[in-house]
């Protein structure tokens, strides 16, 4: 995938995967709508479909919670759907397993049409293929930790011995060994969410769906649970769809991020693409306070090596963050860091390159950073002003 994917309903992006392969996606979503209100089915494809939310409600009495959304979720990726309250992200994740019925569009899991599934196939989907971790835990208060984790296996019909053995293994996996006999009321919020995570893992689903699972937790506990998700994904490679309103959480966990607004996806891309090449002023404002050096990689900042630069300086990987490169240059005292890919020099980064990324004065690939609309609007007037003098050379004297 090159560049940032900004999805259009009528023109789904050709490569919406995260792995760069042609394998079939776990979820394939095209032109999906969920409209609430009278005669909701008439809204998609009508003259009212493109109206802003307030005008749509005034004209039809309907609310489009999910509006003409298209994307693929590839096997093994963490696909994050992020947006503010009311953007449609939680409605979207519930549509994936038809906990909420979509109004129109197409939706498939592993190539199978979800919208064509009868009740038996839907039960099988929810019991075996996709498991959800909710924000409010949903634990059974009269059951122990072990029995809560084993609940899905009980529904599947496993024997008591089998399900308790599996549940014991998963309780240990999420760091709750020794707490098997406690009730939910005897656990902290973080521990309760770990029980919910273990319960979802118990049925061995092909995809885990997280609906803002950590938003009610304290910051330190939330960080611990994010670490747990990162660890589980690293160990198992399980496909995950993660819903959040927290940009930091999205950037930390996501292989790719779909940023939603008013029911539609305004930009879909890797964390680096979202931060480095925002699609519009809304996304640019969203990521304005993100420390760019902690997200963007040296591959976006490097330049060709000049004579004598290929032999000296610390080596960094192309996927190392700019922050890591800054540390390497600072510790070594060398003017540049060499970007090495499998023993091959692919470029260098100097202090000026790194500072440009931190300051946001260059976009990925070394292009000038996009100018916000409110600044660009004054470009015509500014063009009549005298040229400013060139900045003096002195990049080598910049201290990072």
Automatic annotation (TrEMBL):
- A single GO molecular function term of this UniProt record: ATP binding
Q: Membrane-crossing residues?
A: none
Where in the sequence does UniProt note compositional bias of the Polar residues kind? 1-22
Coiled-coil portions: none
Keywords (A to Z) from UniProt? ATP-binding, Nucleotide-binding, Transport
Region entry Disordered, spans: 1-24, 360-400
ABC transporter domain: residues covered? 51-287
Homology family: Belongs to the ABC transporter superfamily.
Protein name (record) = Glycine betaine/L-proline ABC transporter ATP-binding protein
Species, as recorded: Streptomyces sindenensis
